[in-house]
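Researcher: Here's the sequence for the chain we discussed earlier.
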Amino acid sequence: MDNMAEPGARPKHSDGGDLADQNLVGDATTAAPLGNELVGALRDALKKFDEGLISRFRAGTSAAILAPERACYVDAIISKLWKGTLGKQANSCGCSLLAVGGYGRGELHPGSDIDVLLLHDPSRAEIPNALIEQFIAGLWDLGLEIGHSVRTIDESLQAAAADQLIATTLLESRWIAGNNELLNIARAELDSQKIWPSERFFAAKLDEQEERYGKFHDTAYNLEPNIKSSPGGLRDIQMIGWVAKRHFGSEKLHDLVEVGFLTEAEYQTLYAAQCYLWDVRFALHMIAGRREDRMLFDHQIALAKFFGYSDDDCNLAVEKFMQRYFRTAMKVARLNEMLLQHFQEEIIYRHQNPHPQRINSRFQSRLGFLEVTDPKVFSRYPFALLEVFLILEQNPDLKGVRASTIRLIRQHRTLIDDKFRRDLRCRSLFLEIMRQPQGITHALRRMHRYGVLGRYIPEFSRIAGRMQYDLFHAYTVDSHALFVVRNLRRMAIPKHRNELPHAHEVMLQVPKPELLYIAGLFHDIAKGRGGDHSELGAKDAYNFCIKHGIGAYDARLVAWLVQHHLTLSTTAQRRDISDPAVIIEMAHTVGDQTHLDCLYLLTIADIRATNPALWNTWRAALLQELYTLTRKAIRRGLSNPIDKRELIRDAQRDARRILRHRGFLPGHVRAFWRDHLPEEYFLRHNADEIAWHTEAMLNAGEDDIPLVLAEQKETGGGICIFIYALDSTDLFARCTSALDKLGLDIYEARVITTEYGYTLDSYLVLERNPSGPFDRRRGEEICQAMRAAALSNAAPPAPSSRKVPRQLKHFHTQTQINFNDDSANQRTIVELTTADRPGLLARVGVAFSSCGVRVKNAKIATMGERAEDIFFITDSQGEPLRSAEQFSCVRSKLCQYVDEEQGHS
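Model: Thanks. This is the structure I predict for it:
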């Protein structure tokens, strides 16, 4: 197997001496006696060599030179130990010491494991077990991370027959010391017994890769990729080599060029990618001080600095570095896909050569795969570079594209230039691709993998592989955009209707879904340019639509969606949507039902494609509530907005109807509301909530106060907690602390005080670590804890300290506090942006309490590593904050309680 340290004959390094005779090892051990002194001398020699290796790497020597050198040097070290331990039996025994795994391929990075196999033949001279144990112990004493196994040839063959991973180990194993005949015997037996013939071996390796890809959600673009195992990582290159070695007997990947499976350009792309990935892996091991193949946030900034990247006005150094990595991974994954398709045709289908089925003059189907009718199709008919994807959509029985045609697409994609983009046929083909009833997501992803999408939409190529250094965005921008389109498509497909039933019903009302898909492609396309990406992207989207003959109204709709793609989620999560003024403002922003429908669907698709952990029942319910309220306002008419009194009358009427069915007299209910509940309460709650609260309060006696209720929302959007208690300034602080200790995360809080000294508090919470459905026992536990908190006369307890998750530790968000006036509702708005951490809201509650501030409403939003929380507050008299002393107290106490904990994390 070619370790790709050299594409052809690459010279040995000239700055570290000739390693052929391993002078350094010889000098260190010539006079050393056996035993501990030998091990110590070898350990010192290896340490000195590794230090020199790191120095040379820092000075610019490539890991493509250093990793094979380290393997060669470790060979010499281990060989010395072998001979020193076994003495005269070292080469004449019936045992062979083999390097396996990465060590067998001759590639050792600073923290790589050293995997060895002791292969022995019982019919030959045996080595005493004591000597074998002494040798293995010596390897550990050298400071090496050793993995070892001891097998006979028969045992190895039996294990290989049962497990292709062991068969792979034998394929790439390498002799180090001992009897050099045994490995050849084992390999000959492996072939003669037809263990794992090419067909089975390829199928098993393909299954292995699919399973590996599944662990990374089938994308190379996770926030913390594994440089070895993620799609597009080193394992993808090794996969090609394993299959080539088993089928062709190839020792080097360049052999595939000679047999026509790789072009020289493709080989050079693979070689350059491996050299780069090796450099990154070498640096990762060096920075971590151990074997570490995950590119954790801990190390990404250090890697970016090591490779010479720096921040600028548009992008962070770490984002530039990771974009280079992701683009390299993309190239590897594309070549891996094409070559495995090539292998499949050669290995699995080589005995099948049916007549092709003609599709049109340019394309035909063979063995279920699409291919061109002539190698010159793309040069003669450039528009066929888009037509191929339309044909795949229109023929769902096709399994994919033949490797030879994929290669032709890659070779001819440079034909996609300005002239191509102006061609009416090309523009029509692209729109047809976006209008098909099936296969749109697969078509766009193939276009991206084959390099067509970025050529056709140059702006899209600029976001390829672009990451955002935070915990909020789980994927690169290009991958995210394609996920958005995928999510929109799933809303439109009947078989997925149960996934998002309401969104599916709304999607059925959208007259031109392709406009939504185009908006999904363009919504983040301007990220990384500087400026407002929504505004810049809207211009790109509008120009694209106009050039493609889309009408002016529809083009404006697409541009508007791109410009406002954050508006709905921002309003839902950061503003009080029980306030009629907020709903009226949203209705004016969208203007009509079509704009509202499209924005609602795009918002859901965007959130679900941002981070798998971001979408939850609470966000789903919140967005649907905002959508419903805005739709009512639009239907009523923008010139005839509903007023607060009408909203109160409607809520009371519907709640009375519910209570009447439960046996409560309307007059009794009206009197209770008049005497106990302020008008504000009816604006902040819907009819179901009002009926639930009222029933409990009417049935409660004096001993039941404070009254606490808890139930799961019918929509599944979290747990609703209601507290009716005597008011106190620090009640919010005690409640938030109690909820934190219960393992409940607060997403929304509403606090309404009455003129009789009582408070009506509502919390919407989600389980931090869900262990099962909400049940009566959990409800009682919550109610008891919250009742105890409401009854307590003690000062708010210090928030519980919990370990800060690893990922949060490596992001440093500066705390920002902004004040705004909400004069219409007699409140002050506090916007708090800070680093998220366990128990944050409980600390905020204590800070407010220490200033005598009352929280009337709270909207809690966590954006990855960053918390963006909104609090609507008043002073102790229910008035907005007015004095400089009040603002100063809130600011200083928030900073004290919030940043103090951040400093300790």
